[in-house]
Design a protein that fits this description.
63% of the residues lie in helices and 5% in strands. By secondary structure, the protein is mostly helical. It has two domains: 339 residues, no CATH class; 126 residues, no CATH class.
Length: 506
């Protein structure tokens, strides 16, 4: 028995290390994603809440750069690591379901070669950690169902509480699971004192963020309103459902096998709540017009269920066929999953599939996938700003301000400019508005935008000092200006605009 366990864990650890090595070998090929540049900036300004996200990602950003320095590797290390840990949790769920080594291999290979999880474990975003918290709470739920020990509620609510501090969308998982439990005999577990104690503990964990939200007039509501207006409006029901199949296409047979088995097989009735959890979560996210990837945290649990079911009910040749299918389907999708190609090469590779792979959140089709377009151009932008800032006299540098139109631009200047002594950039976008000074003096300004904008009447003199020329950059043509001789209205205009923008958070 000891030999069998030892062999299982040797394979599990080997697969986890393989998963980690995949990311460590590729995750510095591209620049940071625009969202990662925002989260880095949040880490430089720790708080209990932010305009668009809870505080957990900022803490990870600060810890990452403290350990590994101000580098791309630093910010992408922990998403890669959490992906490897997730693989171990998947294996533990399979073992909890009484699945053997073959079930573990099938389930973990589906996870390793999933295009979505390869992508999310490459990016420094709350998504990777959100998927982990969904998975880990799923594992604790399986333990709860298996043992009928209500003490597991404490751990579940702790994970949910921390997960809430990472990404609010875990609420979909929580609500769906509580509804799903009501449809099974496990509803008796809701009567336990540990359920109420766990719920209270979860509230205590998230309370500082809720207080922060209250004190700042609920920025979450403002953010969700913006998402609904500019992004979620492009989400269609048909597109949402299709994406559920495409996101994990190499493991489609596996997770569908798990869902169907636990939904309809009487012998698996004990864990049917897991299938209900999936269905209710999908319906709930559809109801609130969430993005297709909001469901991704469910699929690692489905992989575990599918690995167990395939090993138990399929004939040997079918099991090997499934493994072969994973490899065959994942190989052509690999360049869309990992940054293994240059931008030039991925543009060429994706030309024939652009309608499916290169459609951005605005509904239009471009030359490269959106995430890849958000991972280039930032060094070029920052170098323009850094070079001009360093060319100024000491007196000019001491008084010069840097303004960027959006958080990606501002975050890039913040990230790359730190070691060059640049001041923190000012922006009115996302959480940068919280850090913007309420007033400024009539000083020179480095201005980053795709157009001249307001500087035309706020400064008597300005000149273009650079432009980002990168056809794969989402903001190709982005311009940088150096503005001097501010007009008398500059300070008044700035103070009024900042006051107006900050007012909704007071």
């Amino acid at each position: 028995m000891l030999k069998k366990i030892s062999k299982e864990w040797l394979i599990i650890i080997g697969l986890a290390l393989f998963k980690l090595c995949i990311h460590l070998a590729t995750n510095t090929n591209y620049e940071l994603h625009r969202d990662a540049l925002l989260y880095y900036s949040l880490g430089e300004n720790l708080a209990w809440g932010y305009a668009s996200v809870p505080p957990f990602i900022a803490l990870i950003a600060k810890f990452s750069t403290f350990i590994f320095g101000n580098t791309v590797f630093a910010l992408r290390f922990f998403p890669a690591l959490i992906g490897s840990v997730s693989l171990i949790i998947i294996a533990k769920i399979v073992k909890e379901l009484k699945g053997g080594i073959f079930a573990i291999v099938i389930a973990t290979l589906a996870f390793i070669f999933s295009p979505s999880f390869l992508r999310s474990n490459t990016l420094f975003q709350p998504v990777s950690f959100n998927q982990f918290f969904w998975l880990f709470s799923g594992y604790l739920i399986v333990k709860l169902l298996n043992t009928q020990n209500p003490k597991y509620w404490i751990g579940i609510f702790i994970v949910w509480g921390i997960g809430f501090l990472n990404k609010y969308s875990i609420t979909f998982f929580i609500v769906s699971f509580l509804i799903a439990v009501l449809f099974t005999r496990h509803r008796n577990l809701l009567k336990s004192k540990y359920f109420f104690a766990g719920g209270l503990l979860g509230v205590v964990i998230i309370l500082p963020n809720l207080i922060w939200q209250f004190n700042h007039s609920w920025p979450l509501i403002h953010h969700m309103s913006e998402l609904q207006k500019y992004q979620l409006v492009n989400v269609s029901i048909i597109g949402f459902i299709i994406d559920q199949f495409i996101m994990n296409l190499p493991g489609l047979v596996i997770w569908m096998t798990g869902l169907i088995t636990f939904l309809f097989f009487k012998s698996e009735k004990k864990f049917r709540v897991l299938a209900y959890l999936y269905l209710f979560t999908v319906l709930l996210i559809l109801l609130f017009r969430g993005k297709p990837y909001y469901t991704l945290g469910l699929y690692p649990v489905l992989f575990a269920m599918g690995g167990y079911a395939a090993d138990k009910y399929f004939k040997p040749y079918m099991k090997y066929a499934i493994i072969a299918l994973i490899f065959l389907l994942s190989l052509p999708m690999l360049p869309f999953s990992l940054p293994v190609y240059s931008h030039e090469k991925i543009a060429e590779y994706s030309a024939k599939t652009a309608a499916f792979t290169n459609r951005w959140e605005d509904g239009k089709i471009y030359n490269v996938p959106q995430d890849y377009a958000d991972m280039t151009g930032w060094k070029e932008l920052s170098s323009i700003v850094i070079q001009h800032y360093n060319s100024l006299s000491p007196g000019e540098r001491d008084s010069c301000l840097i303004y960027a139109e959006n958080y990606g631009q501002a975050g890039a200047i913040y990230f790359y400019g730190k070691k060059h002594g640049l001041p923190a950039p000012i922006s009115f976008n996302d959480n940068f508005i919280f850090w913007a000074p309420d007033s400024v003096d009539n000083v020179p300004l480095i201005y980053v935008n795709d157009e001249v904008g307001d500087i035309d009447f706020l400064f008597d003199s300005y000149k273009k000092i650079g432009q980002v020329n990168n056809i794969y950059f989402r903001e190709n043509g982005l311009q940088v200006y150096y503005c001097t001789q501010p007009t008398d209205t500059f300070r008044i205009f700035y103070a009024n605009k900042v006051s107006r923008l900050k007012q909704k958070y007071r």
